[in-house]
Amino acid sequence: MDGHEPVSPPPVHPPPAHPPAGTFLVERYWPGIDEIQLETALRNLERAARATRAEGRPVEHVGSILMPADQVVLSVIRAETEATVREVNERAELPIDRIAEVTAHGFGHTG
C-alpha cells in the first residue's frame, strides 16, 4: 500500500421538498350550516390554502366533516404551524372555535 486509501464520497441525500407537516383539527360550531353553504366555504378554504402555498408555506386541507345535527364542522388541515392553519381559515373567512394538533390515521397520512 502506498498510504493513500481510496476515500468514498459521502452519501448524497436530496433535501426534503419541505419539512414534515403537522396535522391539525379545526373545530367549528356553525349554527345553520348546510351542505350547500359548506361546499362554498370549502372552496374558499381551498383558495386560501393555494394562496398560502404560493407564498411558500405548505398547507393542505385534507378534508372536512359536517355533523348537521350538532351544527359542527370538523376540518383536518396539514401545515407547519397552528398559526398557518389559523391564517388560512381567517383568509377564507371561516369560523374557528378550536385548533388542536392531532395524530391522524386513515387520511392518507399518519402523523
Account of the protein in words:
- The chain has 111 residues and is of the alpha+beta class.
- The protein has a single domain, classed as Alpha-Beta Plaits (2-Layer Sandwich), CATH 3.30.70.3090.
- It is 27% helix and 27% strand.
- The chain has two helices and four strands; from the N terminus they run βαββαβ.
- A four-stranded antiparallel beta sheet has the order 2-3-1-4, with helices on one face.
- Helix 1 crosses helix 2 (82-91).
- The chain is globular.
- The model is unreliable at 10-16 (pLDDT under 50).
- The CATH level-2 architecture is identified as 2-Layer Sandwich
Sketch the topology as an H/E string, one letter per element.
Answer: EHEEHE
Largest sheet: 4 strands, antiparallel
The unreliable regions are 10-16
Sheet/helix structural class: alpha+beta
The CATH superfamily label reads: ORF SCO4226, nickel-binding ferredoxin-like monomer
Keywords summarizing the entry:
27% strand, alpha+beta, 111 residues, 4-stranded antiparallel β-sheet, 2 helices, Alpha-Beta Plaits
Topology:
Blueprint: E1 22-29, H1 35-54, E2 59-67, E3 72-79, H2 82-91, E4 98-102
Antiparallel strand pairs: 1-3, 1-4, 2-3
Helix pairs in contact: 1-2
Briefly say what this structure is.
This protein is α+β, with helices and mostly antiparallel strands. Helices cover 27% and strands 27% of the residues.
